[in-house]
Amino acid sequence: MASPSDRDLILRARRGEMEAFGELVLRFQNRVFNVCYRMTNERRQAEDLTQETFLRIHSRLDTFNLERPFGPWIGRVAANVCLNYLESVKLKPSELDEERDADENPSPETAYENKEHSNRIRIALASLPARYRLVIELRHFQEMSYSEIAANLGIQLSDVKSDLFRGRKMLAEKLK
Description:
globular; mainly alpha; Arc Repressor Mutant, subunit A; 2 domains; Rna Polymerase Sigma Factor, Chain: A; 8 helices
């Protein structure tokens, strides 16, 4: 038997079926955690923000437009939760959490090089101002278009382009 679609699970969750909402959480928890981790660069804080994201989603599930895909919406909610958190505290880059899941088994040399490269990128991303980090997250990790980013953040398209340009430039400078 095929698993239910996101739409079916949302409809069931709206009717109060906690099992359906639980299935949505299972489907999207890694995606939400990854957004939160890339935004905060702190594992424990990302876990807390992931939980807060799902609480917010549960309370706003009735506002979700069923004609749109659920994945991008949940990613935007997670990004907004993180942005609110980052604006409430002046978050500074911290020492990186070493726990990571490996998708493949590369050679020790390759694994070390990949880890070092990923760490450099994560450190550089974490050091960017929150607004640049957010547009980079939405564009490159959530794969949203410029116009989608502008609409979801309530900013002008030109501001999205400008922030992405500046954020990428700052990131490139930090990675030199």
